[in-house]
């Protein structure tokens, strides 16, 4: 009788992907994907607030005016609207392409981000499915940094907590 020992894959750190985050080539794991999307979200919020403080003609301390300014800002005749959206979509697409590369699929799957309803299911799939441990046609796996894992875990924990609050508040509202 032969005992089989499972083969353990050892990650060769010299082969790890070191490409910059803004390149669509290469791979990123789940934690890196979550972390860089959270960073993108905060950058976008900061960019919106900065735009409001610089370009708004209203009282800068009135946050109700900020909501009205956002509606005006989203006017398709505003060039900043297009630049802002191009910035967001570029990075969302880059992060998605790198994530599907990590699973061994073509970057063309990133087009699922523009299909309503399906894009939400696609996002869950990107976050839940493990990437390939070994090198694939898109390169070697990228080593997830410790701070990226920390941000990703905190994001998931806070997200679950906020979801529970939302469900609780929604169920309370249905009782009345």
From TrEMBL:
It holds the Pfam family DUF805. The chain crosses the membrane at residues 33-55, 79-97, 109-128, 150-170. One of its GO terms (cellular component) is plasma membrane. This is DUF805 domain-containing protein. Keywords: Membrane, Transmembrane, Transmembrane helix. InterPro entries: DUF805.
């Amino acid at each position: 009788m032969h005992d089989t020992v499972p083969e353990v894959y050892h990650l060769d750190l010299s082969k790890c992907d070191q490409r910059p985050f803004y390149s669509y080539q290469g791979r990123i794991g789940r934690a890196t994907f979550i972390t860089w999307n959270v960073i993108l979200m905060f950058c976008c919020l900061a960019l919106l607030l900065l735009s409001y403080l610089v370009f708004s003609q209203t009282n800068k301390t009135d946050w109700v005016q900020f909501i009205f300014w956002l509606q005006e800002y989203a006017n398709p005749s505003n060039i900043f609207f297009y630049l802002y959206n191009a910035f967001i979509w570029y990075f969302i697409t880059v992060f998605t392409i790198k994530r599907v590369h990590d699973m061994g699929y073509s970057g063309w799957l990133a087009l699922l981000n523009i299909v309503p309803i399906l894009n939400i299911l696609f996002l869950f799939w990107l976050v839940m499915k493990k990437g390939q441990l070994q090198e694939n046609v898109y390169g070697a796996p990228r080593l997830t940094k410790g701070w990226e894992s920390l941000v990703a875990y905190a994001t998931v924990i806070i997200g679950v907590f906020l979801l529970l609050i939302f469900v609780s508040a929604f169920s309370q509202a249905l009782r009345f």
